[in-house]
Amino acid sequence: MTAMQQTLFSPVSVYGVGLHSGSQVRIHIYPERQNAGIYFVRTDVAPPVVIPASCEYVVATKLATTLGRGEHQVSTVEHLMAAFYAMGIDNARVEIDGPEVPVLDGSSASFTMLMKDAGIVKQDAPRRELIITRPISIVDGDRFIKMLPASGYEIDFTIEFDHKLLSSQQATYAIDQETFEREISRSRTFAFKRDVDYLRSIGLAKGGSLENAVVIDDYKVMNVHGLRYKDEFVRHKILDCVGDLALCGARIRGKVVASKSGHELNNRLCRTMVAQEMGADACRVGLAAISLP
């Protein structure tokens, strides 16, 4: 049976602070017609600027994934994009009155709940799908991310840090709505205190706090209530990966295997997938299936 595209039943809104900019931002998410895809509209500039949620429009990957068009940008899109993908939203208009998606609690949980509350409806057009038929690898020293042929969508992720509390974690999850909501969506962004202190010294992480990030000092997790999962750190890296790869604009059929990957490598993989024969064009015109050679 052919899977059909979906959008929201009704609009939703949320207000919060940007993790890095510290800006107070409001977003409104509206249902959109079939084959429109997901796109952002910066409503705080005149005339409003439309920025497609596409890997081609990624202009920065340091600390977060940033989309841009001309001189205008929308940063930290990965948590919202992960929620769109997991909840099966193919088409949506995201109006935003600032330069960064609000971080909320540092996870995707609030976004997924908003979308469930809004309702999800099927549309009269087949979904776009990227079917991986041969391995694709992006390697940078000891970091890598690979996409392998598979019958569904799955992510196997490993992280490693030179830290007493967090040396190595590994996890594998199927990426579907139920699993994402239960196992992935509540995992929060995290940082080492030494890095937070440095970022603030150069004017970043202005909106960060223990209310929207897990912070680790030399010996412990600083958040009063601790972790939501014992391996919350690697689960959040999987969440980020889902959001970054959602910028391919299609449903993915393949298995990700990654080690020490981040936004940069994730985006390079996404670009490589859609740049394969027919990939980018077929994603845009809404073909039901794209087979990469």
What do you see in this structure?
By secondary structure, the protein is of the alpha/beta class. The protein is built from seven helices and 19 strands. It has helices spanning 78-86, 109-118, 177-184, 193-201, 232-245, 263-275, 279-285, and strands at residues 4-8, 12-17, 24-31, 38-42, 49-52, 58-60, 66-69, 72-74, 92-96, 120-126, 129-131, 136-140, 143-148, 153-160, 168-174, 190-192, 214-216, 251-259, 290-291. Strand 2 (12-17) and strand 3 form a beta hairpin. Helix 1 (78-86) crosses helix 2 (109-118) and helix 1 crosses helix 5 (232-245). The longest helix has 14 residues, at 232-245. 43% of the residues are buried. Residues 277-293 have low confidence and may be disordered.
Summarize the structure.
The protein is of the alpha/beta class and 293 residues long. The protein is 24% helix and 33% strand. It has 2 domains: 4-126, Ribosomal Protein S5, domain 2, CATH 3.30.230; 129-287, lpxc deacetylase, domain 2 (lpxc deacetylase, domain 1, 2-Layer Sandwich).
